[in-house]
Amino acid sequence: PAAPTRGGGGGDSPCKGGKLVRAGQTVGCIVRDLLNRYKVSNPSATVIPEGAFFNVYKDFVSTSSPSMQASIKQVIGASDTRVLWASIVFMTSADAESLSNARGHFIHDNLKELTDGLRARAPEGMRTIFFTDLERPGGGFTWTAVEDALIQNLFTGFSICFPVVFCVLVVASGNVLLALFATVSIAMIVVGVLGAVQVYHGWDLGIAESISGVIVIGFSVDYTVHLGHMYKEAWDQPSRESKTRFALTHMGGTVVGGGLTTALSGGVLFLCTLLFFTKMGTLLVWTIFLSMAHALLFFMACCAVFGPTGNFGSVHYAIGVCKRKLGFGKKD
Q1: Shortest CA distance to 207 belongs to which of 276, 287, 157?
Q2: How many CB atoms sit inside 10 A of residue 63's CB?
Q3: b/e map of 196-223 (b: 16 or more CB within 10 Å)?
Q4: Cα separation of 94 and 138, whole Å?
Q5: Structure confidence at residue 10 (pLDDT)
Q6: Cβ distance 246 to 230 under 8 Å?
Q7: Residues 6+ apart with CB under 8 A from 10
Q8: Strand, helix or coil at 176?
Q9: How far apart are the two ends of the chain, measured CA to CA in Å?
Q10: Which residues have a Cβ under 8 Å from the Cβ of 13 and sit 6 or more positions away?
Q11: Cβ atoms 184, 286 nearer than 8 A
């Protein structure tokens, strides 16, 4: 009855004590209760004969109080001639309020293995056995499937967003190398935000994280674009270091100011009572600070060490060369 888990309840298992059933709780089994009633007159019986099962059920219901009858009808259903279905109810040892998608799958997989084993050994009439979780807030395993779809959509969004971001940055900066540095910076920001909320807040990929994962890209592209554009505009500077200094001097303060005001606006969400909004506030603040850090430190460091000079990586220069090769432009 305690239904031990495959993982033994250790490590990251949400099941306490290695059991699916919560300590101190019992498994509600109407079939067991019917068998106990039948054993009153048949002490040596281990099962209820098929022909006597419905009569035992009717006798059990008719001798119960009205409130008990209502409870019985919630766990077993019958027509006028036979029993149609019955359920076995128990409370799991996992905390549904803090159950992540991954830990929800742990319970789902254990129950599936248990149910598959019971189905394989069950008589013909009971091989339709299945399990569900209607007590967990949000719809139980059905909601776990929804979260799976959201997570899949997150990675689909990444596969679409990053190529689009790179193309947009190429157009905005006019330089392939700057666009590459910026795209790598944005990827690091996304990984940093999702990693930070998992390490420091204990959040696995869920609804808010999946939705915000793609939104993070939009927020984090801002600062690298401004700094990259200013680096490109320093055409009269002779070296990478001087171009980087020019970009930081003319745009660094604006980036910091814009980041702080956006982070403060996200901080207002901490005043909300709904968990979704406080999560979005946390994700927004992490995104802004990591975006500033990567734009001012990583991206600018890449520009200072490997940044393009002259016409290296220039899209306009490459187009001009192609036009001249094809005879559409003036030759030198």
Answers
A1: 276
A2: 10
A3: bbeeeeebbbebbbbbbbbebbebbbbb
A4: 15
A5: 44
A6: yes
A7: 18
A8: helix
A9: 87
A10: 5, 7, 103, 106
A11: no
Contact 275, 301 (CB under 8 A): no
Distance CA 266, CA 288 (A): 9
Among candidates 220, 193, 189, 150, which has minimal Cα distance to 279?
193
Quick one: DSSP state of residue 5? -
Structure tokens at 150: 């959201």
Return the number of other C-beta atoms located less than 10 Å from residue 259's C-beta. 21
Say which CATH superfamily domain 150-323 falls into.
Multidrug efflux transporter AcrB transmembrane domain (1.20.1640.10)
Pairing of strands 83-86, 76-78: antiparallel
Question: What is the per-residue pLDDT for 16?
Answer: 54
Q: How far is CA 90 from CA 21, 40, 156, 169, 222, in A?
A: 6, 25, 38, 55, 51
User: What CA–CA distance (Å, rounded) separates 226 from 228?
Assistant: 6
What is the mean pLDDT, run by run of 10 residues, along the chain of 332 residues? 46 57 75 88 88 89 87 86 84 66 76 87 83 62 76 84 87 86 91 88 76 76 87 85 91 90 88 85 89 92 88 78 73 49
Q: Where are the CATH 1.20.1640.10 domain residues in the chain? A: 150-323
Residue for token pair 């776990």: 144
High-pLDDT (> 90) share of the chain, %: 11
- Assigned token pair, 1: 């009855």
Q: CA-CA distances (angstroms) from residue 243 to 116, 209, 233, 257?
A: 66, 37, 9, 21
CB atoms within 10 A of CB 245: 16
Distance, C-alpha 53 to centroid of its chain: 46
The first and second tokens of residue 156, run together, are 């689909």
